[in-house]
Amino acid sequence: MQYGFKSIFRYTFKHSLLVWLLFVAAHSSFAASKSNDEEVWPGKTPRKKLGNRQKAVSFFNIDVFAGPALNNASGDYLKFQEQYYQTGQDYLIAGGEFKNYFGFTGGLAFRIVPFWKKMNKLSELSAYAGIQYYRRGFIHEFSMENVATRPASDFTRWKESYSSNHVSIPIMFRYGSKFHIEAGIAPEIFVGGNMQQIIERKSFGTAPFAGGFDEKEVLDHELSGKTMKPLTLGFNAGIGYNFIQEFAVKFLVNYNTGYFKQEPNLKHIQGSFLLIYTWHQ
Amino acid sequence: MASIKKALLFFLLGGLFFIEGCKKVDLELESTELGIDPIQHPDVFVKLLQTRGRYYDKPMPQGGDTSFGFLPFDYPDVIDFQKTVEIPISFRIQNLNNLFTVDSVFFSIDGSFGHWAVPFTRSANVVTFRVLIPNTIRNGEFCLQFKALIKAAGNRFFTKPGKVCFINPPPVFCGDTLYGRVVVTPILSIRKMILSDKKGPIIFNWGSGTNADRFDVKWNNKFVVSSGTLLEPGQVPRCTSDGFIITGFRRTKDYEWTEYDPSISREITIFCHKGCGDGSTEWRFIAKCP
């Protein structure tokens, strides 16, 4: 687990903390107006008189959500990079692997429940649009060994990490109340990112020439419209569960086939585990 | 209370984007190729060179006896690094008799901080040196600076520095015209070309001006077309420096063809060698895909 806790902390915790702080702040203010009322879900017959609890499920709702994501990249661009393993020299052996990227998803959605008063199956249908933020990317690690220097070892190790930020305007349809499923499209706008290269060169082991050496370089590059596709179309699907009326968890999958401006390109599948806070207006 | 909640929301979400926007970066990425830009990052590029020596993260030793030159010759000027390329560079050491030994060769990249030292124990005034340029270099131009440490009559001294420059051009495709113009040196150009995805006969057209040149085309690690005798897979068109005399120099336009199957390989390597002893030349090469 080379990218275990360190990566999770680096890529998700700092983002999640901000938005979860928001949840806590909002929830504390909401809790003041919340009594010991029983939960009411659309499509279910209330067991008690609704009273002021009717406001808990409403026509207009605002969802705020955030959480960590795991991004998997695939596509022709990975094959293109694999070509670099063919060094054409017997004494230079190269190989590598692509790793999943720990990202982040968050945003704000305005959701309407058009048949919320009917208290039947139709009342479980809702639609939402809003603004959604994705942090995604991919990691390529590969190494070259110059076996001509044996018995000394001579390794060159690379790590290229693409991290990009995208804002989308999802248009989604949801069905269900306590358990719900949803799907829709998400036009995505690239808003920035960076590519980091870490390069290590090391000569060591048995009698390296003149004692060997150990060098490391880290380069950061800005991603811009020169290399990144500014507008792409993503597809979302998710499943959620409201564990209390104003809080829910959701597993959201985003699929996008555009990343770079030029071919070969990347495909992304990003699975996000989201915590959702809902204001019922 | 509602307005406070909204303000809090926008403040926190705004903070999220602010953090993203404040990340420190060096340069704008120009290409999605894997690798290092040799112009922007010579300090990194020099560390990627492959040779049997030691890298020192400090400048190359200063000074050199101006009486003794270290003159490179017989190297390609244009190389395509879609695959790792080993560059043979020969050096003549001028104004020395036979009572000397080349102790080591030092080299660096123009603009880089560090340098390499490679041991030599050879008593000859021609040193053939090989440095391998990995394919992890982006398109661009770069120069290698060399100097040799000489042992003669109990003394050690550096030669004058020598310099060779290379161009790593962007990939060319079937139908593109490859063009070269050579003045005195270098004598060999190596280029790679990406062919189409259709199977069938492929025609190669070439032409030389001023002086006759030799053309060789390598596909799937074998020479498949030549303006002279087909070479063995391990050979490189060279003049007499390594005992291999080449023929097949043609001045006028000519063509050859071969059967092509993209499922085997879509890449060819073109070698253009100017006539041994010739001065300048110009050449063109075009491939017509099925």
Task: Explain what the structure shows.
The complex is a heterodimer of chains A (281) and B (290). Chain A is mainly β. Helix content of chain A is 13%, strand content 56%. The two termini of chain A are 44 Å apart. The relative contact order of chain A is 0.18. Chain B is mainly beta and 290 residues long. Chain B contains 2 helices and 19 strands. Chain B has helices spanning 2-21, 42-48, and strands at 27-28, 54-56, 70-73, 85-93, 100-109, 115-122, 126-133, 140-152, 155-158, 162-168, 172-173, 177-183, 188-194, 200-209, 213-219, 222-226, 254-260, 267-274, 280-288. In chain B, a hairpin with a 2-residue loop joins strand 15 and strand 16 (222-226). The termini of chain B are far apart. At the A-B interface, helix 1, strand 4, strand 5, strand 7 and strand 8 of A face helix 1, strand 1, helix 2 and strand 2 of B. Strand 8 of chain A pairs parallel with strand 1 (27-28) of chain B, so a sheet runs across the interface.
Terminus-to-terminus distance of chain B = 73 Å
Looking at how many chains there are and whether they match, the oligomeric state comes to heterodimer
Q: Extract low-pLDDT stretches of chain A.
A: 1-5, 28-40, 43-56
Radius of gyration of chain A: 24 Å
Give the overall average pLDDT of chain B. Answer: 78
Element-by-element helix/strand order of chain A: HEHEEEEEEEEEE
Structural class assignment of chain A: mainly beta
Q: Give the strand content of chain B.
A: 35-45%
Share of helix of chain B, binned: under 10%
Sheet of most strands of chain B? 6 strands, antiparallel
Give the % helix of chain A. 10-25%
Cα separation of the termini of chain A: 44 Å
Class inferred from helices and paired strands of chain B: mainly beta
Quickly describe the structure.
Chain A is elongated and about 80 Å long. Chain A is built from two helices and eleven strands.
Helix and strand topology:
The complex is a heterodimer of chains A (281) and B (290).
Chain A: H1 5-33, E1 60-74, H2 76-82, E2 92-99, E3 101-112, E4 125-146, E5 152-168, E6 171-176, E7 179-205, E8 213-223, E9 231-244, E10 247-256, E11 267-280
Antiparallel strand pairs in A: 1-3, 1-11, 2-4, 3-4, 4-5, 4-6, 5-7, 6-7, 7-8, 7-9, 9-10, 10-11
Chain B: H1 2-21, E1 27-28, H2 42-48, E2 54-56, E3 70-73, E4 85-93, E5 100-109, E6 115-122, E7 126-133, E8 140-152, E9 155-158, E10 162-168, E11 172-173, E12 177-183, E13 188-194, E14 200-209, E15 213-219, E16 222-226, E17 254-260, E18 267-274, E19 280-288
